[in-house]
Amino acid sequence: MTSLRGRLTLLLVAGMGLLLAAGSLVLDRAITTRLLHAFDATLIAKAKSLETLTEQQKGRVWLEPTHEVMPEFEARLGAEYFQLWLADGSVLARSHSLRSGDLPRFGGPLAIPVLRDVTLPDGRHGRLIELRFHPRREKDEPLPDGELLDATLAVAGSREELDSSLSSLHAILVFFVLGLLMATAALVRVSLRVGLAPLNDLALQLDSLRADSLGQSLSAENAGNAPAELAPLLRHLDGLLARLKESFERERAFSENLAHELRTPLAELRALAEVGLRWPEEGSRPQVLAEVRGIALQMERIVLNLLALARCDGNQHTLWTSEVVLEAMLGEAVERCRSGLGREIAETEIELRLDVPSGLTLVTDGEKLALVLSNLFANAVAHGSPGGPVTCSATASGGEIALTVSNPAASLAPEDVPRMFDRFWRKDASRSGGQHAGLGLALVSSLCRLLKLDVEARLTGGVFEITLRGPLVLKET
Amino acid sequence: MRLLLIEDSDRLRETLDRGLRRAGYAVDTAADGRSGLSLAMERAYDLIVLDLMLPEIDGLSVLKSLREAGRSTHILILSAKDVVEDRVQGLRLGADDYLVKPFAFDELCARLEALVRRSYQAKNPTLRIGGLEVDTTSRRAWYAGREVKLTPREYRILEILVLRAGQIVSRRDLREDVNEPESDSASNIVDVLVFSIRRKLQEQGSPSLIQTRRSQGYIIETIETSAP
Fold this sequence. Notes:
The complex is a heterodimer of chains A (477) and B (228). With 477 residues, chain A is α+β, with helices and mostly antiparallel strands. Chain A contains ten helices and 15 strands. Helices cover 48% and strands 19% of the residues of chain A. In chain A, the strands form four sheets. Chain A has a five-stranded antiparallel beta sheet. In chain A, strand 3 and strand 4 form a beta hairpin. Chain A is rod-shaped and about 155 Å long. In chain B, helix 2 packs parallel to helix 3 and helix 6 crosses helix 8. Chain B is built from eight helices and eleven strands. In chain B, the strands form three sheets. Chain B has a five-stranded parallel beta sheet with strand order 2-1-3-4-5, with helices on both faces. Chain B has a four-stranded antiparallel beta sheet with strand order 6-7-8-9, with helices on one face. Chain B is of the alpha/beta class. At the A-B interface, helix 5 and helix 6 of A face helix 1 of B.
């Protein structure tokens, strides 16, 4: 995994290194140029002096003696050199240090000094200035053949001292840059450690979180000491923790409800079996078997509903789309409800009413839509007010169907409506009676999502309505 | 022993009612917290078996109300809620025992018997008075090592008299304990049962342990309880 601290250190040190290298190069170039200019200026000054000592008279050019005024041209180690040529290329004079040797000649333009790096006659690295000039003459001296004589002067000196100074300068700059880089790296590490400490603290805080401490607010706990940059992160983490807590609580409630829904019929079954085994003469066999069957059916309903929900969650349901005549399908669903819940319908005197236009054909998975409607009818019969009608109506418009199942529900409160589609939600907190586990409407919601139907529940004036809407209409006649 | 069963599941309530009656308890039942609390406040029960998730009033509220009203009846919570917090809360509110559904019927009976013994400060399931030995676990009785064959109702009468040895037990209490609370007060069912017990004890060589107190009830005078 990439280290934030490592990346920042690398970037900062590399950036600093580049800046230092560029600065050093500029500095080196400036100092080198300045030193070279100073060196060249000295050479030029000497050349000018020699130029001044060169005279012409009566068509002749000569150089006044230099050994007294310019002893650096005397023959000794480390001496400097000069050589003077006439226009015809003959050597007029040369320094004693040259002995019989020659300096290189480049033939530059008149009055413009030419500066070059050269290898001196003694093999040292040097610098040479070549100057072509008209030797000095008296004011009233007539020009021979009407033209001025010219001469070429070359002055050279060793640049070993200059090169040594430049090498020292380079070394100083390199050590300076490396030292600064190391110091920068150390400083950056320390700064990052101190600067990123709140992140480490946050990581430790997150590491210490447990399932039972998800309710805490990181923003509130770090309000005094967290840097402002972390505030958005803390807010997002708080949101995440809240969602996690909600999810855990929902999971726990689901497990508890499931345990209760299964524990109670299991307890019934076990008690029935153990009492029957202990006192076989107690209770008639058909009666006991009918009880066992009832418990098995109750548990089967729970398991099948849970399986259907799990398949919806896992997108394992395949939609088998076909043309479905709504009136016929609803009629069958009502009949199934009447046969399955006949006793409840009779006891509560609930009337099932259909208000559906004939000739309405939908394109959908008829089996799953029928399952949705059966669950809605069963829910309405189970929780509707006794004597009240359960009505199913349908309207179609613009290719969209709206199916509404409504029933009077005096015991429902407005705050119950948003929770009705939660798994295992039951109005009765005691979860009495095993006929309805609270999975029917959750299954309706999941199946409708699969069928691309919007589900809306509302309670208006004591009448509870669930409406399904979606673009399922194929034709209306 | 009078027992009140408060359970909202029809099937479980009916099955336990049947089983507990056969086990010798005089059982009343209630399907919701309100009627259960009402019964528990009106009548004196030896034991209450209480579900927690009940309609009307939940089980913990029933428990709390009973304890606040000074009722010390032994209460066993019988619930599908199995997490430690629920059990701790139930016991802290005054329940004497907690059993999680599903459960073994035998375990329920054993726990109820333990609560009954606790009611009478009898830790040993075997009660002894002279040569009479009553095993509250197997619900059988012996005199001088010979078994006294008793019907369930006869056993219940004998067990109550032994458990309350030294105390006069009224005919009405005995009638309710043998699950005949609705019978006519003039009914001599208790006298008939006591007569039968006396006869069976005498057949095994027992002197007359059960004394009649005119217009008051019956009493077994002396009790001697020993650990095996």
